[in-house]
Design the sequence.
């Protein structure tokens, strides 16, 4: 019998060209899916507010988005810092679309995940989402509704790992 291999997934996000959002905020925009989303949303009519923890990678992502014509405001932030997140989101101005994308993992292989690592993962992947969504809701609630009757949209990105139990990574 042949060897069974896990399927390989490739992320391909088409460049968005027809969408109503002009003011977009994305956390975890310095790499991976967050960067891909930022680049897909980048256009000459769009203002992007991008955050990430790695200043060099965030600068590269911001530069790629500017090359596509977007106005970009990047901020080196950690989503676990509620005060900093609230200030950044409040100061961003009007927001049409917020993508709470920042997330971490901590694979341990066969070992048990240490409690401190699980706490760090929850702080980023759960509390970080709240530190993004709750201030965004306040900003959007104060905005006038758009033509569609909405004041803004919030998307939360999560890992499929939440649905697949792994003995070495309970968080």
Sequence:
């Amino acid at each position: 019998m042949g060897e069974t291999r896990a399927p390989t997934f490739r992320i391909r996000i088409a460049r968005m060209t027809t969408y109503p959002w002009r003011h977009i905020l994305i956390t975890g925009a310095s790499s991976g899916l967050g960067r891909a989303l930022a680049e897909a949303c980048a256009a000459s009519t769009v203002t992007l507010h991008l955050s990430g923890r790695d200043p060099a990678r965030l600068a590269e992502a911001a530069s790629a988005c500017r090359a596509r014509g977007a106005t970009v405001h990047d901020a080196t932030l950690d989503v676990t810092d509620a005060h900093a997140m609230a200030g950044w989101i409040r100061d961003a101005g009007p927001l049409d679309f917020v993508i709470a994308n920042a997330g971490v993992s901590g694979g341990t292989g066969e070992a048990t995940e240490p409690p401190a690592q699980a706490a760090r993962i929850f702080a980023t992947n759960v509390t970080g989402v709240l530190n993004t969504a709750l201030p965004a809701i306040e900003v959007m609630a104060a905005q006038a509704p758009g033509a569609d009757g909405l004041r803004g949209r919030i998307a939360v990105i999560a890992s499929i790992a939440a649905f697949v139990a792994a003995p070495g990574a309970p968080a």
